[in-house]
Backbone:
């Protein structure tokens, strides 16, 4: 092994350790603000454990700006969700922002986190999202008498073909939407900067469910708290406040051909 290769090999772990130490130092510096912003159900000690776990799970998070990482963590905390865990409630996504010329951290709701938010509203009795495979029996139609019928194959279900989501309110109203897997991929490639990595690659079917869930829940009679939580999905914030909903943030999109990330404006 050449001297250059040895230097690079030894420098990488040192750089990662330095980035993690820098992030920890920033979090320690912000402890006062963190304590004020944390919800009652989460102690600063538990928050710190979740932070360290996220950094260990994905070392690239340690290379993002401390401000964006901490803001994403606080967003997850105020929503009562633990990011980057097998629970699939939320994700912290590191990416390189060509506009700011640095790595930043984006907060994303997971499929299960989205369902959790909807149930918290108290307005719905059932929320489901399912993947349809080529050997399943599946029939749907829209119009004045909508139909949605799905009978999974007992075995050898084949490749995924569709994904759908539905809700039923406590008063008996309902709604559903359906997307083909090709439509989901096209949507993700066009609008998600993390399509080439992150949950789109590790949990594609769950992200597909989330995509169609977001579409159908726009028509559900959910309370404003759900809409406020949904508005945090996909945001990048660079400040911490006692109310992360009120902290300004931006939503970015990626060019599917060039991979260039651009700002599309303030969060909804």
Residues:
């Amino acid at each position: 092994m050449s001297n250059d290769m040895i230097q690079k090999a030894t420098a990488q772990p040192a750089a990662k350790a330095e980035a993690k130490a820098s992030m920890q130092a920033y979090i320690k510096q912000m402890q006062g603000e963190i304590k004020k912003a944390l919800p009652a159900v989460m102690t600063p000690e538990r928050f710190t454990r979740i932070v360290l776990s996220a950094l260990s799970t994905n070392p690239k998070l340690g290379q993002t700006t401390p401000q964006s990482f901490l803001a994403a963590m606080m967003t997850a905390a105020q929503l009562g969700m633990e990011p980057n865990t097998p629970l699939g409630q939320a994700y912290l996504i590191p990416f390189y922002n060509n506009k700011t010329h640095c790595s930043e951290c984006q907060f994303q709701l997971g499929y299960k986190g989205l369902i959790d938010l909807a149930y918290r509203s108290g307005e719905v009795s059932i929320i489901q999202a399912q993947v349809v495979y080529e050997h399943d029996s599946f029939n749907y139609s829209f119009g004045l008498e909508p139909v949605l019928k799905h009978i999974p194959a007992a075995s050898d279900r084949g490749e995924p073909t569709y994904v759908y989501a539905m809700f039923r309110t406590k008063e008996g109203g309902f709604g559903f939407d359906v997307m083909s897997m090709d439509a989901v991929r096209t949507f993700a490639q066009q609008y998600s900067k993390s399509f080439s990595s992150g949950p789109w690659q590790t949990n594609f079917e769950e992200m597909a469910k989330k995509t169609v869930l977001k579409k159908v829940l726009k028509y559900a009679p959910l309370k404003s708290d759900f809409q406020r939580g949904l508005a945090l999905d996909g945001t990048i914030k660079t400040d911490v406040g006692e109310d992360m909903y009120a902290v300004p943030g931006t939503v970015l999109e990626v060019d599917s051909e060039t991979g260039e990330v651009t700002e599309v404006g303030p969060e909804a």
Summary: The first helix runs from residue 3 to 29. The mean pLDDT is 81.
